[in-house]
Amino acid sequence: MRPRLKGLTLALVIAGALTLQGCSLAPTYHAPAVPLPEHYREDAGPWHPAQPADQLQAQWWQVFGDKQLDDLQQQLLNANPDLAAALAHYDASVAFASQLHAGLFPQINASVAPVRQRQSDRRPLRGDTQPSVYNSDTAGFSLSFDPDLWGKIRNQVAAGDAQAQASADDLAVARLSLQKQLATLYVQARGLDAQSRILKASLDDYTQALQLTRDRYEGKIASELDLSRAQSQLAEAQAQLDDVKAQSDLSEHAIAELVGVLPSDFALVHDAESLKQPDIPHALPGSLLQQRPDVAAAERRVFAANANIGVAKAAWYPDFSLTGLLGGQTQGSGNLLAAANRYWALGPLVNLPIFDGGRRNANERQAKAEFEGAAAQYHSQVLKAVREVEDNLGQLRDLQQESQDQQAAVDAAHSAEQIATNSYEAGALNYLEVVTAQTTALQAQRRLQEVDTSRLQASVGLAVALGGGWSSSFSND
């Protein structure tokens, strides 16, 4: 009867362990509550949660309608080394999560040890008939299983999965950041191309003006001072063109680095057509929390920290594991599987914490503090996300008004330039008035181009602040 009682006791222990497997000591998880605005300060549309239909196209930059930008973005995805490093980090995080999943299953190992050995002649308790040299062949299987009574392993798995999801979001953050850098640099490069065209056109005008002034000087109509002013104006415009060329080269070098190409092997195709200013719809906020990968990553890290509290709490309770051994052993001859050569063992192992000098208590406090820190970081990311959208919406609104005002300034400056030139040719004004009018017109035109470039860059910033553009389903009403 005693063997049966022992077997029954072991079965009850195993059944009890399996019954307790559903236990978890992690606090019930709720995403941290973050106060959200009813609407953006810089936009009339109401703030509302994202809906399942609010799906964005991955290629958000296509709103600018530029084929070369499309090609460069694809090249970045294929060849950027920083993106490759972020992808490797994500793969490592997924692999680590898979390692944690293995703890949910029994661990089975097989071992074979054919050994020939010699024992010491003075070995304690050695019998007189025992040989000095003998064989010891052993083969067997071992099994171990942690029933995870208090949810420690399951919480470790949950935390690992959440960290892997956060790493996926980190990869998306890295991708989005690089795409933003590329789009911003490309917009800057195209703006510099436009600046270059403006200056070249002015150089042509200034060259003609210099020739006119030289002819008038040789005809004793204009003074040497007028000639010097015309020469200085032409040289200044040339210097400005040289400066724009230098900035353009730097932009191309930076773009080459982003797309994984040596600057010496890279050159942008210069296009005289301006980039398209995208239409910004109202009701943008619906995409914010679910589309921004940095916000999603912060939330997943809060979840992981919550699960780690359960891991820390489980350390206070007895740790049960089940172990088993089965195999055979001989002295170098005979059947390892014969009944007389077999060995086996089966039973539970209990590890009961008694005293650790406060380590478990400190671990639990640390886990709770890390949860509070992760929740605060999540709150910070949401505030940052809202602020970045506000910033770019405000920039777009103000720059649009500035563009309209600057266009009026350009029109007035061109009119003043034409009047000054005609009056000078008629002998009614000195050349200083012409130089002043032409300089003002050039500055106004260049400033208008700078504003347009800033508007495009603010559109890039808004697309990234929303997590990657906006859905066509958003209303423009």
Structure description:
This protein is of the alpha+beta class and 477 residues long. It has two domains: 22-105 and 149-317 and 360-465, Outer membrane efflux proteins (OEP); 107-117 and 129-147 and 319-352, Outer membrane efflux proteins (OEP), CATH 2.20.200.10. Helix content is 59%, strand content 10%. The protein has helices at residues 2-19, 67-79, 81-102, 152-218, 224-258, 288-291, 293-314, 359-425, 431-465, and strands spanning 107-118, 133-145, 319-330, 342-351. A four-stranded antiparallel sheet has the order 1-2-3-4, with helices on one face. The longest helix is centred in the middle third of the chain and has 67 residues, at 152-218. The model is unreliable at 50-55 (pLDDT under 50).
Task: Describe the secondary-structure layout.
Elements lengths: L1 H18 L47 H13 L1 H22 L4 E12 L14 E13 L6 H67 L5 H35 L29 H4 L1 H22 L4 E12 L11 E10 L7 H67 L5 H35 L12
Antiparallel strand pairs: 1-2, 2-3, 3-4
In short:
The protein has helices at residues 2-19, 67-79, 81-102, 152-218, 224-258, 288-291, 293-314, 359-425, 431-465, and strands at residues 107-118, 133-145, 319-330, 342-351.
What share of residues are in beta strands? 5-15%
Fraction of residues in helices? 55-70%
Q: Biggest sheet: strands side by side, in what order?
A: 1-2-3-4
Q: Count of helical segments?
A: 9
Catalogue the unreliable spans.
Answer: 50-55
Largest β sheet strand count, sense and barrel closure: 4 strands, antiparallel
* Strands, count: 4
